[in-house]
């Protein structure tokens, strides 16, 4: 399923499938598995890929909305504090704070 969430006249170049693929390696860490201080390299690589792909405002909005949907999935039982540290620990610039309560419009407008 592809998320067409673009707000402008140009279609976003990134899809929810892209976002899911990039975020998937982070889910075990975000569930609380493994060393709290060490984000897995595959997670960091996925976040870098996502950051590289999400260049336009439309792309960032699609990425944010898709991440929000993933992070709010109850059965994942994600740990908020782990989500928060992923960008910093991976040294990746993400235009929004990773959280189960992402406020996408606040960050991408």
TrEMBL record:
Recall the GO molecular function terms of this protein's record.
lipid binding
Q: Which CDD domains does the record associate with it? A: nsLTP1 (cd01960)
Keywords, sorted A to Z: Disulfide bond, Lipid-binding, Transport
All copies of the Bifunctional inhibitor/plant lipid transfer protein/seed storage helical domain together span: 16-104
> A biological process (GO) annotation for this entry?
lipid transport
InterPro entries noted in UniProt = Bifun_inhib/LTP/seed_sf, Bifunc_inhib/LTP/seed_store, Plant_nsLTP
Family under the similarity heading? Belongs to the plant LTP family.
Q: What does this protein do?
A: Plant non-specific lipid-transfer proteins transfer phospholipids as well as galactolipids across membranes. May play a role in wax or cutin deposition in the cell walls of expanding epidermal cells and certain secretory tissues.
The protein's name is Non-specific lipid-transfer protein
């Amino acid at each position: 399923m592809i998320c067409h969430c673009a707000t402008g006249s140009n279609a976003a170049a990134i899809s929810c499938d892209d976002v899911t693929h990039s975020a998937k390696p982070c889910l075990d860490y975000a569930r609380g598995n493994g060393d709290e201080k060490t984000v897995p390299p595959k997670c960091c690589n996925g976040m870098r890929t996502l950051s590289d792909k999400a260049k336009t405002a439309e792309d960032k909005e699609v990425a944010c909305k898709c991440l929000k949907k993933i992070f709010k999935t109850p059965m994942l039982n994600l740990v908020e504090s782990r989500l928060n540290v992923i960008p910093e620990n991976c040294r990746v610039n993400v235009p929004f704070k990773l959280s189960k309560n992402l406020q996408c419009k606040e960050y991408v407008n």
